[in-house]
UniProtKB/TrEMBL annotation:
Cofactor notes: Binds 1 Mg(2+) ion per subunit.
GO molecular function: ATP binding; magnesium ion binding; malate-CoA ligase activity; succinate-CoA ligase (ADP-forming) activity
Gene giving rise to this polypeptide: sucC
Occurrences of domain ATP-grasp (ranges): 9-236
Pathway stated in the Swiss-Prot or TrEMBL entry: Carbohydrate metabolism; tricarboxylic acid cycle; succinate from succinyl-CoA (ligase route): step 1/1; One-carbon metabolism; formaldehyde assimilation via serine pathway
Lineage, top ranks: Bacteria, Pseudomonadati, Pseudomonadota, Alphaproteobacteria, Acetobacterales
Protein name: Succinate--CoA ligase [ADP-forming] subunit beta
Pfam family of the protein (one): Ligase_CoA
Role of this protein: Succinyl-CoA synthetase functions in the citric acid cycle (TCA), coupling the hydrolysis of succinyl-CoA to the synthesis of either ATP or GTP and thus represents the only step of substrate-level phosphorylation in the TCA. The beta subunit provides nucleotide specificity of the enzyme and binds the substrate succinate, while the binding sites for coenzyme A and phosphate are found in the alpha subunit.
Listed InterPro entries: ATP-grasp, ATP-grasp_succ-CoA_synth-type, ATP_grasp_subdomain_1, SUCC_ACL_C, Succ_CoA_ligase-like_bsu, Succinyl-CoA_synth-like
């Protein structure tokens, strides 16, 4: 789960992470009032959306104008900047061409910047450890740095038994070229950030840029904070920070129904149990010449109600021309899944081709339920057979539509 910059900074402030003073504003008048609370004379007005590259982005309503992060030298300039952004659509590299609507801005105090650095914490799947990453290339997308200058990225892994040690922060500080009081400030900053990462069950915390002020202090100029969805049951206060308007409506429905769903731009809807099997299903659809419309994992404890909801979410995508169900029965037995498929098909009056591949516990009973349902369900013997049949069904539907048959 992602949250906005201002929300992330408020959380990090509670852990002693150095952030600048700022206030949220939902309209131009509130932005002016927010600026009046700050020392000035420089203010920064930032669009709040779940996407990076805001400063370099452009508004769809004014593509030749300024980006989503603007400097203001007076309260009135802060007001004008907010008025120019709120209610407009900001397009960045990460939003795609559709952009995201800006509903609020964060008005923050200015800062005397001496250097811009990068600092991030994440779970490294290769080492199975929380890893601290740092770079001298602050303000740049870390993916570009990794691709073109990997030697400029410093890493230290935190031992899960020993925990974070101050020497790890000092090692990074020296690698970044910090000295004197800057090293002590950096050490304190990293220690606080690491504690926040662990206690909040974060997936990613990224500070880009992390700035060294002219006074030698280390301050977070930005904050990207993302949480592990699987741990949110321990943090109901964090779950309340979710901004539903930033999510695809189908993905939001999936979250509310305990489904793992990600919308894609293909034409074959996928319903699978297990993330690995879902990835394999999407890959084989591509192999046979089509593309998946979604990633959808109904989980190992799927029941008829959840299957019906999964079908409803899949079919709400107008680009879906066929559906492939690929189930390996374990805890969720094949007969139960088959009964759910039949119920969902009848309830939703499914009109697109449906290919089903079942394997695992009670598979023969599951196949019998599908065969006797009276529905036009296309059975598949294995994953390759399922992929061939669903792609063929899409192609046939496309030809029929083109010829008016």
């Amino acid at each position: 789960m992602n949250i906005h910059e201002y929300q992330g900074k408020e959380l990090l402030r509670r852990y002693g992470v150095a952030v600048l003073e700022g206030h949220i504003a939902w309209n131009a008048d509130e932005a002016a009032a927010a600026a009046e609370k700050l020392p000035g004379p420089i203010y920064v007005v930032k669009s709040q959306i779940h996407a990076g590259g805001r400063g370099a982005g452009r508004f769809a309503e004014d593509p030749q104008g300024k980006g989503g992060v603007r400097l203001a030298k007076s309260v009135e300039e802060a007001r004008a900047a907010a008025e120019a952004m709120i209610g407009k659509t900001l397009v960045t590299k990460q939003t795609g061409p559709a952009g995201k609507l800006v509903s609020r801005v964060y008005v923050e105090a200015g800062c005397d910047i001496a250097r811009e650095l990068y600092l991030g914490l994440l779970v490294d799947r290769e080492t199975a450890r929380v890893t601290i990453m740092a770079s001298t290339e602050g303000g740049m997308e870390i993916e570009e740095v990794a691709e073109h200058h990997p030697e400029k990225i410093l890493k230290v892994a935190i031992d899960p038994a020993a925990g974070f040690s101050p020497f790890q922060a000092r090692k990074l500080a020296f690698g970044l070229g910090l000295e004197g009081g800057q090293v002590r400030s950096f050490e304190k900053f990293v220690a606080s950030l690491t504690r926040a990462f662990h206690e909040l069950d974060c997936a990613i915390v990224e500070i880009n840029p992390l700035v060294v002020t002219k006074a030698g202090e280390i301050v977070a100029l930005d904050a990207k904070v993302s949480f592990d969805d699987n741990a949110l049951f321990r943090h109901k206060d964090l779950e309340a920070l979710r901004d539903d308007s930033e999510m695809d409506p189908k993905e939001l429905d999936a979250v509310k129904n305990d489904l793992n769903y990600v919308a894609l731009d293909g034409e074959i809807g996928c319903m699978v149990n297990g993330a690995g099997l879902a990835m394999a299903t999407m890959d084989i659809i591509k192999l046979y010449g089509s593309s998946p419309a979604n990633f959808l994992d109904v989980g190992g404890t799927a029941n008829a109600a959840r299957v019906t909801e999964a079908f409803r979410i899949i079919t709400s995508d107008v680009n879906v021309k066929a559906i492939l169900v690929n189930i390996f029965g374990g805890i969720a037995k094949c007969d139960m899944i088959a009964a759910g498929i039949v119920e969902a098909s009848k309830t939703l009056h499914l009109s697109v081709p449906l290919v089903v591949r079942l394997e695992g516990t009670n598979v023969e009973l599951g196949k019998k339920i599908l065969a006797e349902s009276g529905l036009a369900i296309i059975p598949a013997d294995n994953l390759a057979d399922a992929a061939r049949k669903v792609v063929a069904a899409v192609n046939e539907a496309r030809v029929s539509g083109a010829t008016g048959a």
